[in-house]
């Protein structure tokens, strides 16, 4: 059996189309477009490439976009003052501070300084609390978990009563997706188990999963024999395992990416599976755009 591929690249296009038509409609009726500021501190190549893609996507959708790049040695107080400026900027609906930040800056302090109503990453404790309560309380679900849930829904996978096993307990993926899948509502109502580095018999838990969500950051961690035949497998791992010459420009080296699941073997057992790359990755930025649009809609009373 060969699993159905759940392609993030295709689902991204569907969702961006939906966002784009909403942006056009809101602009016509209300004369406003979503405003997003991306704050990048320093010059880490991975962060630059993520932020560049965020800016490109925002521009493609006709958002008002501000790219605010800051030097590696910016003082924490100056970064907090910058956030305060955007908290008070009426044209800005979403503030994104690219992580990780340099060591001399307290990441928690910075994330907590963002107005929860502009926190389109969904990392502020107020939004984490709203997510925990669920239902109408949720304003900005964090982008990667929101993308995962959207993929599961659009792939037509039954979640109600399903055994969901989440591998990994990070604040960005594991904890929030586990919380989202157990809520009442569409694309949820699941029975959820979270496993992590201290779990005994990791394989036994995975074998029970109707939906297996893997966000461990360990290349090839999940073996094909851990997968229940017909299960839906969501691989969140984006591990850089080497470099190769780019297809477009062989003089340039690009990263070789590998997921947390042994994809080639797993696709012969799973019912549906996300590839790496081209699976969960493209969904994160898409959901960031959706949250920024949502933020404007909240402000205009359209939600
Ligand atoms: N760095 C890696 N992933 C993310 C993300 O989703 N949001 C932010 N702000 N920084 C990141």
Description:
This protein is of the alpha/beta class and 303 residues long. 39% of the residues lie in helices and 17% in strands. It contains ten helices and eleven strands. The protein has helices at residues 8-30, 45-60, 76-87, 107-113, 125-133, 143-154, 174-182, 202-207, 263-266, 281-300; strands spanning 4-5, 35-41, 64-70, 94-97, 163-167, 191-195, 211-214, 232-235, 239-245, 253-258, 272-273. It has a six-stranded parallel β-sheet with strand order 1-11-8-7-5-6. A three-stranded parallel β-sheet has the order 3-2-4, sandwiched between helices. Helix 2 links the parallel strand 2 (35-41) and strand 3. The chain starts with a strand and ends with a helix. The relative contact order is 0.17. It binds guanine.
Order of helices and strands: EHEHEHEHHHEHEHEEEEHEH
Terminus-to-terminus distance = 43 Å
| Overall pLDDT level | 97
Which spans have pLDDT < 50 for at least 5 consecutive residues? none
Mind summarizing the main beta sheet?
A: 6 strands, parallel
Short structural description:
The protein has helices spanning 8-30, 45-60, 76-87, 107-113, 125-133, 143-154, 174-182, 202-207, 263-266, 281-300, and strands at residues 4-5, 35-41, 64-70, 94-97, 163-167, 191-195, 211-214, 232-235, 239-245, 253-258, 272-273. With 303 residues, it is of the alpha/beta class. The strands form three sheets. Strands 1-11-8-7-5-6 form a six-stranded parallel sheet. Strands 3-2-4 form a three-stranded parallel sheet, with helices on both faces.
